[in-house]
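Tip: read the tokens left to right.
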């Protein structure tokens, strides 16, 4: 039996017990343990950005974003997935880094999540998909964070125009462990 099986059961997860608590009430009563752990699946809206010809190094473009509220999760663990279609109507040459950043309540400066993903384009003349995923396990309770994917030109200058189409950021979030003290 795997975790996707109907009626999955282990000592840390018992959805049949009547004394299970919701995470919100669990935080109010420190002595109880959270037994239920919801899973959140959220998809951002597809967007498009264009990197014009002769763009210089260091120029940033926000290509996708989503806001995720993990306040009902204990010790949240989040998998962020990015996918896009890179289209060059005329030959495009350049190097672009894609990186996820987050801003949570009370923060003014975006924090990087995971590494930068480099896409080196040498005379791309059609379209090509580009995707990656990163995990964020560095969140506190009651966090509502906005995640953004930023494309940064890292080559000295770009040649041609590049469209980043259907750029979509998605998230799957759940508790970091089967039970927790809230």
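Filled-in amino acids:
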């Amino acid at each position: 039996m795997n975790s996707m099986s109907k009626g999955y059961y282990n000592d840390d997860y018992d959805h049949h017990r009547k004394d299970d608590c919701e995470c919100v009430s669990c935080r109010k009563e420190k002595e109880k343990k959270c037994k239920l752990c919801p899973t959140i699946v959220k998809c951002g809206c597809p967007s498009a950005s264009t990197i014009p010809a002769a763009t210089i190094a260091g120029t940033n473009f926000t290509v996708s974003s989503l806001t995720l509220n993990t306040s009902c999760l204990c010790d949240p663990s989040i998998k962020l997935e990015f996918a896009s279609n890179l289209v060059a109507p005329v030959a495009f040459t350049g190097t672009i880094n894609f990186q996820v950043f987050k801003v949570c309540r009370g923060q003014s400066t975006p924090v990087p999540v995971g590494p930068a993903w480099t896409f080196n384009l040498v005379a791309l003349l059609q379209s090509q998909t580009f995707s990656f995923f990163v995990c964020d396990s560095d969140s506190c309770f009651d966090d509502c964070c906005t995640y953004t994917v930023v494309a940064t030109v890292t080559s000295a200058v770009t040649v041609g125009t590049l469209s980043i189409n259907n750029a979509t950021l998605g998230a799957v979030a759940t508790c970091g462990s089967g039970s927790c003290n809230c």
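The helical segments are 23-28. The chain has a mean pLDDT of 80.
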